[in-house]
Hints:
A hairpin with a 7-residue loop joins strand 10 (about 100-105) and strand 11. The strands form 2 sheets. Strands 1, 4, 5, 6, 10 and 11 form a 6-stranded mixed β-sheet that branches. The protein is about 0% helix and about 40% strand. The chain is mainly β. It has a single domain, classed as Immunoglobulin-like (Sandwich), CATH 2.60.40.10.
Amino acid sequence: MDEAQYCFIKFKxxxxxxxxxxxxxxxxxxALGHWKTDKAIKLSLNxxxxxxxxxxxxIKIPLSFNLEYKYLMFKNNNFSKWEYISNNKNRTLQMVDSxxxxxxxxxxxxxxxxIKREIIDKKKIEKKPKKKKIEKKIKKI
Length: 141
């Protein structure tokens, strides 16, 4: 598939975890572990925002694909439980815009989500080192 037929996303999930518990996301594509809990993508806890978990890397998903996914909790690196959603539904997402990357923000017990373009922190972009001026020594005669 052509790169234009994909988009890149990051997941962000609001969850107040218990001690030694972390959050992961799994879904119906290989990039999300194809529903295998041991292949789920780990989210990192944002140290600046309490209860906000996010994926570090962008995840490549096909455009116009009916993505299904769910968050799950691990305790001491062992699968603990699935997130609770009434009627045991999966979250769904269908992206039609490849001009990302996008951040998908989910909250517990809500199947709706916010989708935003990722804001690139210009401070984190590597700057080319400045060329040092070469000083020439002039000899006096």
